[in-house]
Amino acid sequence: MDLDPVFLARLQFAFTVMFHYLFPPLTIGLGAVMVITESAYMLTKNPLYETSAKFWTKIFAVTFAMGVASGIVMEFQFGTNWATYSRFVGDVFGSALAAEGVFAFFLESGFLAVLVFGWDRVSPRVHFFSTIMVFLGSVFSAVWIVVANSWQQTPAGFHLVQTADGLTRAEITDFWAMVFNPSSMLRLSHVLVGSFILGAFFVMSVTAFYILRGKHLEFAKRSFTFALVFAVIVSIGQLLVGHEHAQQVAETQPAKLAAYEGLYQTPEGGAPLTLFGVPNDKEQRLDYAIAIPGLLSFLVHGDFNTPVPGLDQTKPEDRPPVALPFYSYHIMVGLGMFFIGITLLALMLLPRGRLFEQRWLLWIFVFAVIGPYLANHLGWVAAEVGRQPWSVYGLLRTADSVSKSVTAPEILTSLIMFGFIYSLLFAVWVFVLNDKIQKGPDEPGAPPPDTTTLDGLMEAATGLESGRASMTSAKDPGESLV
């Protein structure tokens, strides 16, 4: 059987990026939780809020370290598997990733040690400032990564030049037009709000587990309440942001929207909003479709009768695959509606004092954290597969982006190696995370770890390793599944 190097290179990049993307959304979401809880402590001086901030900082440090370690691999793939692509986008990506290093890396590496070790070594105001800086560093990292990826979706602020060896490359003519390309800010909002949802549901998962086990009840109930209110706000906010983003996709990438909706043929009148269906590429139709007539046209154009272009309006060789974007997009949207429903239900029970008595609902929240993880990943899958067959939309095809000198067996070997290494990293992360969660938060007023003992050193090791990692490597080079 002949191995396709393009498919294997895409598979390897998808695997490494999706594994890495287990961690950045959680660090951004937990960073927001840390800022909120430490703000509450600064305002009230209630030691319970300090306990909460310290506990989530431990979880943040573990996840941050793993994110740095897993993100290093991706930058090497640009030079090994995607050399042609790297030549084409080098000027654009170089600017964005350099900005990430300046704005994000130095904030995180400069203040991370204070965040983890500075509770009893600096004043509360200085520590709170370091918490804000580390959180902003994680956000700025997302900003520049999303900017670079969004340029692939909607290129702007550039021109094409011929190099001496006859290749074509994109060069920036307007840096700010590149930064504020047509999709960057909406996609950034979508990514950040998705991260906040994950952070809120992660907190609710852990604290719901504590409540069910009758452990750390005061801390758990207070943290769950904070996270629940936050989750309601960001879940509803994501619905609005997602709507705006879908309108942008309809304008700049109509073929992608058609794939999302399984819209093979352009309807004569208004386009329906598909709730369920099975894409049938052979017959160019959506089987077993359940749809609301005209609603897609209304959501895109504000009118029930305005046509929405189907895939038949795009040349066959330029059409994206339908099944994977269709299912990914619809599951993501369905999960988003689930987040709104489950958090509003919990919020309605909260004032009546009944929420923490509903053990069935708390068990749902224990496992509901899987939902935001799936939604974040499926959103990227829908966006990146929906961009195909282009690695840079309308300019460079994915099939033309791979390295010419790397063979399929070489890619397969490295893919297997990465699978083994990442399995070990994931096991370590789960083990350490479970250990931190099982131990739970320190009691208010508890002394810091005694680093003169083995147990104390083990407790502090997570923060130390994350600090070392942040000082030795830049952050993730991209979230694009080329």
Write the layout of secondary structure elements.
Blueprint: H1 5-20, H2 24-44, H3 47-80, H4 83-117, H5 124-153, E1 158-162, E2 168-172, H6 175-179, H7 184-213, H8 217-252, H9 254-261, E3 273-280, E4 285-292, H10 295-301, H11 323-349, H12 359-368, H13 370-386, E5 390-392, E6 396-397, H14 408-439, H15 454-472
Antiparallel strand pairs: 1-2, 3-4, 5-6
Overall description:
The protein has 482 residues and is mainly alpha-helical. It has one domain (5-266, 309-472). It is 68% helix and 6% strand. It has 15 helices and 6 strands. The strands form 3 sheets. The protein has a two-stranded antiparallel ribbon. Strand 1 and strand 2 (168-172) form a beta hairpin. Helix 2 packs antiparallel against helix 3, helix 7 runs antiparallel to helix 8 and helix 8 (217-252) crosses helix 9 (254-261). Residues 446-482 have low confidence and may be disordered.
Query: What structural class do you assign from the helix and strand content?
Result: mainly alpha
Would you list the SSEs in sequence order as H and E? Answer: HHHHHEEHHHHEEHHHHEEHH
The main sheet orders its strands as 1-2
Q: Residue share in helices? A: 55-70%
Give the count of structural domains.
Answer: 1
Mean pLDDT score: 86
* Count of DSSP H/I helices: 15
> In percent, how much strand structure appears in the residues?
5-15%
- Shape label: globular
CA gyration radius, whole angstroms: 23 Å
The major β-sheet equals: 2 strands, antiparallel
Detail the poorly predicted runs: 446-482
Oligomer: single chain
Total strands: the figure is 6
- Kindly report how far apart the N and C termini lie: 24 Å
